[in-house]
């Protein structure tokens, strides 16, 4: 159940859109921030607020890779796997992070802190390889720098 203050925010966002569907991704992002991921309850709530079926909302939620339809860690590490990042060592970076965190891509650390996910493109090709945690983009990431970033993000 979403709190009234969030429901008001969601309703205001929907009202400011040209059509309710235009606000759907924002609504899902706000619900994800509340629940930690896009739960089935969040899909149903979004559908009710937007006037869309749960199927229509679920289609959106499963299409966008930064909307999570399963539980994730407190911090989600998106490692870019575009051709630019791959050519500049992105695959090595992903393997290093997997070893350092003790998980495979798509998994969450035992302490629930980090989820490691490949991402199709972060739009930072000039500073490849790139990763993003939350809204923070990190470019020119070496394995050593990745470990420093993980230590900083852990606090």
Write the layout of secondary structure elements.
Layout: H1 4-15, H2 24-35, H3 40-50, H4 54-63, E1 75-80, H5 83-87, H6 90-101, E2 114-119, E3 131-133, E4 136-138, H7 143-154
Parallel strand pairs: 1-2
Antiparallel strand pairs: 1-3, 3-4
Helix pairs in contact: 1-2, 2-3, 3-4
Give the gist of this structure.
The protein is an alpha+beta fold and 155 residues long. Helix content is 48%, strand content 12%. A four-stranded mixed sheet has the order 2-1-3-4, with helices on one face.
Number of domains: 2
Q: Which architecture name of the largest domain does CATH use?
A: 3-Layer(aba) Sandwich
* H-E string: HHHHEHHEEEH
CATH fold-level assignment of the largest domain: Glutaredoxin
What structural category arises from helix and sheet content? Answer: alpha+beta
The number of E-state strands comes to: 4
Instruction: Please report which band the strand proportion falls in: under 5%, 5-15%, 15-25%, 25-35%, 35-45% or over 45%.
Output: 5-15%
Q: Can you tell me the overall shape? A: elongated
Task: Please give the order of strands in the largest beta sheet.
Answer: 2-1-3-4
List low-pLDDT spans. Answer: none
CATH superfamily of the largest domain: Glutaredoxin
What is the CATH class of the largest domain?
A: Alpha Beta
By oligomeric state, this entry counts as single chain
State the distance separating the first and last CA atoms: 30 Å
User: What is the radius of gyration computed over CA atoms, rounded to a whole number of angstroms?
Assistant: 17 Å
